[in-house]
Each structure stands twice: as C-alpha cells, then as structure tokens.
Amino acid sequence: MxxxxxxxxxxxxxxxxxRLPDRQLWRFRDWLASGAVTALARxxxxxxxxxxxxxxxxxxxxxxxxxxxxxxxxxxxxxxxWVDEIAEVDYTFTSESPEWVSMGDSTGxxxxxxxxxxxxxxxxxxxxxxxxxxxxxxxxxxxxxxxxQCARLAGELQRVLRALGTHEPSVEVIPRGILLPxxxxxxxxxxxxxxxxAAEGGHLVPS
Length: 207
Hints:
Blueprint: H1 3-15, H2 22-34, H3 37-50, H4 57-67, H5 74-79, E1 92-94, H6 107-115, E2 121-130, E3 139-146, H7 150-163, E4 170-175, H8 182-189, E5 192-196
Parallel strand pairs: 3-4
Antiparallel strand pairs: 1-2, 2-3, 2-5
Helix pairs in contact: 1-2, 1-4, 2-3, 2-7
C-alpha cells in the first residue's frame, strides 16, 4: 500500500471511531499497521454493511482510494449506504479515572517513556468513554498528535496498551491539521495530558 492510500485508510478508520465496535476497529488498525491490506480490503466493507454504518461522500472516497486497489469488491463498496452528515456523538467522556483503575496505573508512565524525544509525536492525552448501558466498564481513549506514519504509530501504541492489559485498545492517532470528528472533539474536551513527544507544535488543545 502506498503512503497516500495508507493515509486515506487511517483517516477513514479515525472517522469510524465510535461508530464501529472497539473489538473490530482496533483489529483493522492493527492490520493496516502490519500491512495486511488484503484482509482489510475484504473485511472492512463487509463489517460496514453488517453494522449498517453509513458513509459521507468524503468517507466513501477515502474507502475507495484506500481499498479498491487492494482488491475490495466494487459491488460491496457501491452497496454501502451514504449519509449527508454524521449524527451527533452519543457517548459521554470524562477525565476522571474509574474506581477500578488503581492509583498506580502505569499507562501514562509507559507512554511517556515511549514518546519522549520522538520528533514524530506531539502530545498524548487521555480520557474515559462512559458506557451507554449499565454493566460495562469505561473505556480509556488515548489521543495522540503525530506528524508522520500515523497508521504504524497507532499499531505500535495499541500493542503497548494490550501489553498493559487493555484487550480492545482505543488509540486515536491524529494527523496534524486534520479537522477533528465530533467523537474526537468530545473525547478531547474531557481529556488530561499523559505525555509529550518532541514534535514542534504538536499540542492537542481541548475545546
């Protein structure tokens, strides 16, 4: 996959946060990071159809540019429903750690050690997405600004969080200059700083 197609696919997966289940989204990001584009081209359109996720015209363009050359079925791509705009975010985010997260939570410390002095990474912030139904745990959302190789960085940080015990990590690597989707705006507004890389001008500014 060339860099433009990888960038388009990463942006599409970024836009699908909160619209696809975490268990699917992190796997798609992992496949993209590891170069398993053929599997992604086969599975992502089917998942969008099964989950009844509508795409905007721009998202459809990103999907086609990224996955059609990798063998995505044109009929499945054409069968995906279109929407004029994405609905308002129906998740609630908070900066407060859930009670089950211990005071010795090591995620921020580990992330800080990984991103320190890296010029491709700016700020790392974290928030918690509250469940929409009772009985489910809150989900940590990690937001990262990056200057390059966003898809591979997402895969790297997902593997770190999985090693720390998060089985379905939610890592949102945001390219510099992108217009944030509403999901990420809401997560960012309720976030706190976790770590800082060395990229100039890489701050995420909560609204």
